[in-house]
Design goal:
The chain has 90 residues and is mainly α. It is built from three helices and no strands. It is rod-shaped.
Length: 90
Amino acid sequence: MTEDEAIARGIHAQQILDDPLVVEAFAGLEAEYIAQWRRAESPDARETMWLLLQNLMTFRGSFLAYVRHGQVALAQRDAREKARTQDAAR
């Protein structure tokens, strides 16, 4: 993947995470899984809710990884451009 692709993917991932509908969906699912976990009447039911919550966090985490990767790529590009500008000024 190129640096520009990593930056674009990071920006897109952040846009998705910031989308009000996605924010609402994540918050709703998290609240529902926790509520069902608390009301669960068996260890299996609690385990299922815990696993669903962990999967939700993993899914969100994958988007955050794209964001971080894009931020690193952008910082590297910016540093390279700054060094190039400083070299040209000398």
